[in-house]
Design goal:
This protein has about 375 residues and is of the alpha/beta class. The chain has 2 domains: about 140 residues, Creatine Amidinohydrolase, Chain A, domain 1 (3-Layer(aba) Sandwich); about 230 residues, Creatine Amidinohydrolase. It has 10 helices and 17 strands. β15 and β16 form a beta hairpin. The protein starts with 12 loop residues before the first helix and ends with a strand.
Length: about 375
């Protein structure tokens, strides 16, 4: 009986083969003999296979001179064949209990003296591969894979556009969830359900930070009971069926947050707008950061802006390029990243406004299109 493919992808065989060829060429150019990739975003990006990260080894083997293959535990062979792997012509090499998959990888790379391992490979696997190939120098594969992943093509941008629209639909429903007497946890639970119902397959994070909790940028949720006048940071994101991520922050207030807060929010609003207007191909990542940071500095909020202005996004919520102070890296068409300045007044309140944007040939396209103004819920 033939295998039934149960895993669908928006991307085709040509996409994955092209990506692997680019990695192979990049590795060959710097004298690396092979690239090894275990479950995670890199493996899914290169093959479409969303493999489980297990204590057993799953490893894509890409020799720079030769054909790629993938080593998987026997119990994962059917899952691999139900993924786009089956259409790529890659040999799927199963390893049973008691067999040494690390030795099998080494057998595929006779004479290899330099290998690159994916940046998120578990240390236990890195060390066992080293033991299996003691003569091979190891280095990180991020320098080979990240430049390729960083430059999104039209199909990837469409995927990010769908992700942005889905999380926008969630934000549009947040005001109905906020009211005095509800806890952050209750609101967060409802938001998580909306993230799934609006098209994501997983909830990656839900931050509902009310009142003084808003001064902690990575606050999660708590049993804090929302009070009248609380500003509420809602930063949410998930992963879509095609593997691409959403991430968007909007600000809400339950009742009047006071004139001081409103004045500071207006300053942040303009700072975020300045960064969006600065972002375009040929501009440095540091300049995009500076456009927001300088405005906050000029208005006395600079010391309360305690993180970078943004991060890249794609099949991971955080990836290259990073938008931080002084970064000389020049933006190019197809690069996707967040613009999310904020201010955080410990013990009092906080605020952050975040959009995902993609560089076009002449400027940027925003993946998020909910209003940036503070939404005051009566």
């Amino acid at each position: 009986m033939p295998y039934i493919k149960t895993v669908k992808s928006e991307f085709g065989t040509a996409d994955f083969l092209s990506r692997m060829d680019k990695v192979k060429s990049a590795a060959r150019a710097v004298g690396i003999d092979a690239v090894l990739v275990t479950p995670g975003a890199d493996l899914r990006y290169l093959t479409g296979y969303d493999a489980k990260a297990l204590e057993r080894l799953t490893c894509l083997v890409i020799p720079t001179h030769g054909d790629a293959s993938i080593v998987v535990p026997n119990l994962e062979v059917l899952a691999a064949l139900a993924s786009p792997i089956a259409d790529l012509g890659l040999p799927v090499i199963g390893c049973g209990e008691g067999q040494d998959p690390y030795a099998r990888v080494a057998d595929l790379l006779p004479g290899a003296l330099s290998i690159a391992v994916d940046d998120h490979m578990w240390a236990s696997k890195v060390l066992r591969l080293k033991a299996a190939m003691p003569d091979a120098e190891q280095q990180l594969a991020g320098g080979l894979i990240e430049p390729i992943r960083m430059r999104k093509d039209a199909r990837e941008i469409a995927a990010l556009r769908r992700a942005g629209a889905a999380i926008d639909r969630v934000h549009a429903q947040v005001p109905a969830l906020l009211r005095v007497g509800r806890t952050e946890r209750e609101v967060g639970r409802d938001i998580a359900e909306l993230i799934i119902s609006e098209g994501h397959v997983s909830v990656d994070f839900v931050i509902v930070a009310a009142g003084a909790n808003g001064a902690s940028p990575h606050h999660d949720v708590s049993d804090y009971v929302i009070q009248f006048g609380d500003a509420v940071v809602v930063d949410i994101g998930g992963t879509m069926p095609d593997g691409y991520c959403s991430d968007c922050t909007r600000m809400y207030a339950v009742g009047d947050p006071g004139q001081e807060y409103l004045a500071k929010y207006d300053i942040l609003f303009d700072a975020q707008k300045n960064s969006r207007e600065m972002a375009r191909p040929g501009v440095s990542a540091g300049s995009v950061d500076a456009a927001a940071r300088s405005h906050l500095d000029e208005h006395g909020l600079g010391e309360l802006f305690i993180h970078r202005t943004g991060h890249g996004i794609g099949m991971q919520t955080h990836e290259e390029p990073y938008i931080y102070q002084g970064n000389p890296f020049l933006l190019e068409p197809g690069m996707a990243f967040s613009i999310e300045p904020g201010f955080y007044d410990e013990g009092r309140f906080g605020a952050r406004i975040e959009d995902i944007v993609v560089c076009t040939e002449t400027g940027i396209e925003s993946m998020n299109n909910q209003p940036h103004e503070l939404v005051v819920v009566d």
